[in-house]
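go over whats below:
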Amino acid sequence: TRNVVIYGNVVADQQAYSRPRSSVYRSSGNNQHSNKPTTPYSQKRIYVIEKGGKICFSAYPLLQCLGSGSPQGYVEKQVEFVCLQPSTVTEHWQEMINRGVNPDFSQKKPFQTFTIQVPQSCQS
């Protein structure tokens, strides 16, 4: 057998949380990507969902509540996802996301748009 090395684009947390410099962030309608600041109870992270037997990763980080943080209301957003067949690569990306790293899915195509509920803010 031969080993296959797969390289992926990874964005440092500092880059992931910075404001976009251009209109690269894709959106539908007026559901813009939030630039709300994070709190000790929240962080912007890649969302992972399962749809039709595929693992789907949000193209951009979205607000998630952490630890003792509780959502203070939800908002429905149309979010672009990259959906892939389960594999060792998707497992690796899920592990990275669970550790707080946000892989860069913004350049991966094609995008599929799903409506999900995202916390408006998080408090203790």
Observations:
- The chain is about 10% helix and 35% strand.
- Residues 10-15+28-123 form one domain.
